[in-house]
Amino acid sequence: MSLLDVRGITMRFGGLTAVDDVSFNVDEGQIFAVIGPNGAGKTTLFNAITGVYEPTEGSVRFRGSPVRLEPDARLGLRAAVVAILAGLSAFIAINIQELWTVGIAANYALNQPFPWAKAAGDALDAARAVPFAWGVLPAILGAGVGAGTVVALWQRSRRTPDLIARAGLARTFQNIRLFTDLSLVENVLVGMDSRMSSGFWTNLLRLPAFSRERAWTEREALDLLEFVGLAERAYEAAGSLPYGHRRRLEIARALASKPAVLLLDEPAAGMNPSEVVELMELIRRVRDRGVTVILIEHHMKLVMGISDRIVVLQYGKLIGQGTPAEIRADRRCIEAYLGTEGEG
Amino acid sequence: MRRLPMPILAYFAIMAALPLFMGATGLFYDAFQAIFVFSLVGLGLNVVTGFTGLLNLGMAAFMAIGAYTFAILTSDIYPFQIGFWWGILATVAIGAVAGFLLGAPTLGLSGDYLAIVTMGFGEITLDVLKNLDAVTKGTQGINPLPRPTFGSWTLELQQERGWYWLLLGFVLLAVLAVRRLERSRSGRAWLSIREDALASQCMGIPPKRTKMIAFATGSALAALGGALFAALLSSTGEPASYDFQVSILALCIVIVGGMGSVAGTLVGAVVMVGMNSLVLVKLADWAGAAGVGNASNVLASPNNWKYLIFGLALILVVRLKPDGLLPPRLEGGAS
Q1: What is the pTM of this model?
Q2: In which element (H, E) is residue A195 found?
Q3: Mapping DSSP to helix (H, G, I), strand (E, B) and coil, where does residue A43 land?
Q4: What is the homologous superfamily of the domain A4-68+161-338 according to CATH?
Q5: Would you tell me which of A74, A143, B22, B312 could form a disulfide with A83, CB atoms 3.0–4.6 Å apart?
Q6: Which value does ipTM take for this structure?
């Protein structure tokens, strides 16, 4: 079974079909390249794989699973609890004046013990006496809105980028997206978030688990910066890095989650030849760590030099796939790149 | 304490010592009690807007929720009367819950839309407080409220120094809490959302949950500020004390001090609220003594220039120091 299985992905934006029925498999341990002229739909394909977009058609399977939330008992429970609370709130919100007056104000006298049971009884009686239109009806409406909101919000969060990242697919971006005001270490630590377990209270109260986690995460973050060659600037702001280094930091941040697959979107864009050589070296070392690499790239020397397998996109369609040697020999693929049929 | 940076340590040292050089009562205390209350609200807003980048224009509503929760649970006109300390605890919890409840359906909204929703929430809260008079006593406010007790000793309303230090203590607690969160997994998740929401989500940070926790934390701090504000006056005051201007004041504090900077928020509160309750009041006194200000001429009273001066301060800061007076700084390094 292949690691990543892209089946018939189609991505339509209104009348425009950016990706048209693309299928391919990526095997574990490969360096897999997606090439094609500008506007061929490569980044859109990446976005569909990583959950930034929901594909119009088709599916992405990672280790055989669609990485998607399925309806379960917890969803039902949550909807039920919210429905009950929302129904009660709606009822109370409308009738609070009456209930408060009957239950609390009427029973309370300064410096005398408050008859809680009687107050509750009076309030209940008052609640029962509320006419249907002001009691049961708003409660039902409130419950409906509450449950509906839960289900609607769940529906929208079934296949989100954070879910996919946590499943083991990390990515970088074509236009580098770092957390520029944070330090290099902090950038990597954010990438490591999915492997951390300390929660709000652990952090607030500085429980022992906090210090333990801080120790190993910081050590590992520094190791990763070392791996990409940025350790000596670990505590500088990411925004102060020169362009070539930013790519490396983005790769370190993506690797921090220990992903099974790393998706690199045009990692060599804007790099000079010597930087490209270093980048090739880095990508090979990433692969040697056991990470499967999928990259989008224009830089032919880089792609042909390191890829195990290549797919070629043009106008959103997959026009060829194979080893670098096969692609080099494929007339259609060469034409797509030379742009003989109009500019892409 | 060991990791608090210099500006914050200096702030608390100066603030703790200041009353020793002042009289036992006076305008100074009114001003600084207000400064501390708004420091708490500002710290809350700093978590929401400064750290997480969510523009919240309804902080006053959470202050009001805090003040009224505290009042209902502690005042002797109602049967609950759980006392000052339990009241404060309950208020912080209910403030957080209120933040969750507002956040749950709205935090999917981005930028300006969230700002509009929070602004609307502020207005609705005011109207509810005004009109729900069986519970909130309408425009009259709930009073009297209990005073804090320490063992058998009670801090009376006129012991202004005591209140000053008590509030300063709450500010210190809030600063410690916010700093601890900021420099942890929780805080990094907030900052990453502010820096780049998409990249953050693609790194596995669940946006909604993270934003909700920020929202609840900010609301809890604002509610604490509201509860202390009410306790100081022994009354919630009228609902209009928590109007839109208050939300804007909180925002000004964070912007002037420096978005995302705890030290900046403290300084921002001193500058903005100090101007409001110290400088302007003094000016009004002088103007009165010099016979300049008279009731018939609205322009002669410095208090009526308040919002003009706020606006001017804001414009000056944004023009001259766009990151605020004390912008956040990177920390860490070889430990």
Answers
A1: 0.92
A2: none
A3: helix
A4: P-loop containing nucleotide triphosphate hydrolases (3.40.50.300)
A5: A143
A6: 0.91
